[in-house]
Structures are given as C-alpha cells and as structure tokens.
Amino acid sequence: MFGSYILDVAIGLVFVYMLLSLLCSTINEQVITRILSLRAKTLETGIKNMLNDPKGELTMKIYENPLIKGLSQNAASGKARKPSYIPSDIFAHAVMALDVVQANKNTPDIQNSPVPQALASLLQKANGDPPIELAYIEQWYNDTMDRVSGWYKRNVQLIIFILGFVIVVGLNVDTLAIITNLSNDTVIRAGFVSAVQGSAASPSHADLPTLQKAFEQIQLVIGWSSATLPTDWSSWILKIVGLLATIFAVSLGAPFWFDLLNKFTSFRSSGPPPQTSTGTAVSTVTTP
User: Fold this and answer.
1) Residues 240, 103 share a domain
2) Residues of the domain holding 139
3) Which of 129, 131, 159, 276 is the most buried (most CB within 10 A)?
4) How far apart are CA 84 and CA 40, in angstroms?
C-alpha cells in the first residue's frame, strides 16, 4: 500500500535521527559533561550570580561549609570536586552560617551591608525569625535554580549541536540520500522496520556498545564513498541541504524522536480496520 510505504520510510528516517541523538546525548553525558564538570560549574555560576559575587569570595565560603563540602566527590581527599547539586535546605543553612550574614543580623543596614542586597532584604523581611529566614532563602535558591537549569539546557543543546555536526558530516548521514535509499530499496526498508520494532520498546537512553550495535543496522545508508561524493555544484547543494537537515533534526534531542517513533510504530501496527463482508452480514429483523 502507498500509505504503508510512506510510513515505513518515515519510520526508518526517524529511527536514524533517534540513534544519532542518542549517540550525541551519550557522548555528552558520559564524556564531555564529566570532563568539563559542566553541571558543577553551571551551579557555581548561578550561586555567584544570585549572591552578586563576581569575585567568588562569598561563594567560596559557602562551598567550604562542611555541609556542602560533604556533597563533593572525593570530599576526604585534597582534590575534591565541587558538587553538581546542592539541596535548598543545606544551601540555606550554609548561607546563614556566613559571618557577614550574622554581622548583618546584629546591625542590619541594607545600604552598607557586605551581604547581597537581595539576601539582606529577605533577612529584614523575616524580622529575625530563623525558620522564616531559612524558608525565604530556600525559596530564593529554588527560583534561581530554575533559571540555572535553563542555562544548563542551552549549553547542552549547543554541545549536542556541535557533536551532531561532527558526527553527521563524518558519517555522511544525508537525510535526502536516506529517503532515496529507503524509497528505492525494499530490503533496506524492511530491515529498518524490523530493527525499529525491537528498539521502540527500549528506553530513550543507551550505552555506547548498544549504540554501536544499532549503528551496524543503518550502515547501508550512511558513510562516505566514491559513489556518495557529489559530482557537480547542484549535487553539492543537495548534499549540504541533506546534511544540515540531519544536524537540525539531531539537535531536537532523543526524547522527541523516541516519542515520535513510538507513535509511528503504534500507528503502523494498528493497521486498517477490518472490513465486514456483506455476504455474511446477520439480519437484525426481530420476529414477533
């Protein structure tokens, strides 16, 4: 059927996008994020921003608090790594333990206080009630972390885009070429659909060995060779358009393509509704 043929091509293309997105996400989480300590650095930048502490003096004192220092990796050693996550209640207690905060509580002066103005306002609003002070600081921290999470997501999107560019160009994952191959080769198209049926039920994250095995299933439609090299300027334009389409598709992320793949496979497995034969229809006339 024509509709089934189009759906199989779409399923194969989405399957390729999902694998590439998974590969980029796995490399980012297991390699790049760990090497660059991206989560920890983003958290530290957010704390500096909320404390209005460009030099990092107050931030450093907070990180030296035993409650937060115990969250660090290898905290007992001399080369402890800063934590990637700090609970709001622990952060609030660490802030209240700062000497400048205690001094501000004794002589509250928002204009001349070394404490950030936002924090000094919260302390003044609490009227010296410690539980309320902690509650205000926790809420302030949680609101700030919502924005920090947005910063981290944008950084990750940029990294995945760069990874997608390198992988797509390096493997020659051309969207237009994949559509052409899947449309013209029934065997490849059937192999993709068969592979998708086994992958649609798996989680949207995988390790590198699993991804390597999955990429073996799509190697027939990717890779550079003498046959895939463009021969004229119009072919180069189509090649660039196909590669850019794949790069932008990968930047959408693995969860997006995983959900779309599940919808396509569910729609394909449902099939057309059964037809009722007129010859076997049962009469509904009621006999008095």
Assistant:
1) no
2) 38-147
3) 159
4) 4
Residue finishing a domain among 86, 112, 147: 147
The tokens 């399957």 sit on which residue? 15
* Co-location of 65 and 18 in the same domain: no
The larger pLDDT score, comparing residue 70 to residue 103, is at 70
For residues 123 and 100, membership in a common domain is answered with: yes
Residue 8 shares a structural domain with residue 57:
no
pTM, whole model, 2 decimals?
A: 0.73
Number of structural domains (the chain) is 2
pLDDT digits (tens, 9 = 90+) for 192-249: 777 776 555 454 445 555 556 666 667 767 788 877 788 889 989 999 999 999 999 9
Which residues are within 8 A (CB) of 21 and not within 5 positions of it... i.e. 6 or more apart? 160, 164, 250, 252, 253, 254, 256, 257
Q: What is the pLDDT of residue 282?
A: 42
Residue length of the chain: 288
CA within 13 Å, CB half, 264: 24
- Residue 287 CA, chain-centre distance (Å), reads 66
DSSP assigned state of 224: -
Please check whether residue 122 is in contact with residue 136, taking contact to mean a CB–CB distance below 8 angstroms: yes
